[in-house]
Amino acid sequence: MAEWEDLRRECEACRGCCLWETRTNLVFGTGSETAELMFVGEAPGEKEDLSGIPFVGRAGELLDKYLYAVDIPRENVYIANILKCRPPKNRDPLPVEEDACIRFLWRQIELIDPKVIVCLGRISAHRLIGDDFRISRDHGQWYTRRGRAVTAVFHPAALLRDPRRKGDMLDDMKMIKQKLGELASPDEEENR
Ligand code: URA
Question: How many structural domains are present in the chain?
């Protein structure tokens, strides 16, 4: 679709912060452009920077396992990040970088029109849900932002560091699957 191509081209050419200078590849986003479910991470890591695809490293492999566990094919979802370029040494995104990049994400969300948005981790949740969001307290809660159902779960990289949260993550993923079923239109339900 022309709109997607234009958006990607605009994103490639963006010089709104300095990260384009050190990236290998733009990590625009991947998956179904008509997805009901969209995941939003923080920023590309090394593997993502090298491949141009979000969540392909160890954290991505863990995310894939959770998708499999709740029977959601990865190709049916869309995965993107708050930042489209890798911050050097995987440092946290700077507010100026998020401010420069966030419009691309909102445009992706408008084009996809997902029923449910899932923030992966604190940084994404702060940006899409609100500054007072606390991941250990508020994960799995539902919010409405710009008319859409939004929730946040632990970042898979955080689960690799602290596996004690893996049970919470599975519960949250089951709850997300259930929410998708509740929000499905009647003819979509017939096809389930
Ligand atoms: N972590 C993220 O937040 N995004 C990626 O794409 C990979 C790791």
Answer: 1
Q: Give the containing element (helix H, strand E) for 37.
A: strand 37-41
- Please name the residues in contact with 160: beta carbons below 8 A apart, sequence gap of 6 or more: 58, 59, 62
* In-domain check, residue 164: yes
Q: Which residues surround ligand 1 with Cβ inside 6 Å?
A: 41-45, 48, 54-55, 57, 59, 81, 120, 157
| Tens of pLDDT, residues 37-89 | 999 999 999 999 999 999 999 999 999 999 999 999 999 999 999 999 999 99
Say how many Å lie between the CA of residue 42 and the centre of ligand 1.
6
Residue 95 falls within a domain, yes or no?
A: yes
Residue range of the domain that includes 82: 2-181
Distance 186 CA to ligand 1 centre (A): 34
Cα 82 to averaged position of ligand 1 atoms, centre (Å): 9
Is this prediction's pTM over 0.70?
Answer: yes
CB 165 within 8 A of CB 159: yes
